[in-house]
Amino acid sequence: MASDSNAPELGAIALPPPDWEPARPVLKLLAARHSSREFSSRPLEPAALGSLLWSAFGVNRAKRDGRTAPSARDWREIEVFAVLSAGTYRYDAPAHTLHLVRTGDLRSLTGQQDFVGMAAVDLVYVADFSKMGDANDEQRTFFAAADAAVIAQNVYLFCACAGLGTVVRGLVDRRRLAPALGLARHERIVLAQSVGYPR
Ligand SMILES: Cc1cc2nc3c(=O)[nH]c(=O)nc-3n(C[C@H](O)[C@H](O)[C@H](O)COP(=O)(O)O)c2cc1C
């Protein structure tokens, strides 16, 4: 919470810098995490693409097919679309497989900024509201945004480690993109995220 300079000091703990040995790998990734918006046209190798999608929202344990990102009430309502130059795919996490949903290059449709369409892959996080039980619309919107944001941070950390650039994007023309992806009424675009080798 922001401190109020007029408020009396109730006590403070001066923390040591983030350098705790057991957590060093993740601290290094967090130190490297940043948004970038300049991408080369180099495609991602299949191994990098697989690791990217697994990091985003893959299955990381046998117990109930748990995922790399938490989700509210374990709804797992976020569908990850991978928009590549060769086509648009939906990530099937349990099968760790990309299913083609659209042919053609839709990358530039996933955003409204100049660099969009340059990155090798644009991830689109789509909330399937039909998976969100008895939540009302406000709750669905809130939890879908939170759940997509956690996935986005997984992608940031993967990219920081893999030498890839990335930026998560809220600026998306959802009215244009939703029909292009063939989305149903209960499927809502939450965020997009560009990923690619830096220029
Ligand atoms: C929910 C959300 C939406 C964002 N939308 C956009 C966007 O549409 N376009 C963009 O270039 N950056 C977008 N960003 C990235 C922020 O601009 C960026 O995280 C911020 O400037 C801090 O920079 P950093 O990520 O390098 O620390 C978004 C970030 C978040 C968390």
Task: Note the quaternary state here.
Answer: single chain
Task: Kindly provide the radius of gyration, computed on alpha-carbon positions and rounded to a whole number of angstroms.
Answer: 18 Å
Spell out which ligands are present: flavin mononucleotide
CATH topology-level name:
NADH Oxidase
What is the straight-line distance between the termini? 38 Å
Q: What is the percent of helical residues?
A: 25-40%
Q: Please, how many helices? A: 4
Structural class: alpha+beta
Main sheet: strands, sense, barrel: 6 strands, antiparallel
- CATH superfamily, by name, is NADH Oxidase
Question: How many β strands by DSSP?
Answer: 8
Binned strand content: 15-25%
* Shape estimate: globular
Could you describe the 3D structure shown?
This protein is an alpha+beta fold. It has one domain (36-196): NADH Oxidase (3-Layer(aba) Sandwich), CATH 3.40.109.10. Helices cover 28% and strands 24% of the residues. It contains 4 helices and 8 strands. The chain has a 6-stranded antiparallel β-sheet with strand order 5-4-3-6-8-7, sandwiched between helices. Strands 1-2 form a two-stranded antiparallel ribbon. A hairpin with a 4-residue loop joins β4 (87-92) and β5 (97-103). It is globular. The structure holds flavin mononucleotide (FMN). The site of flavin mononucleotide has 9 residues, from β7.
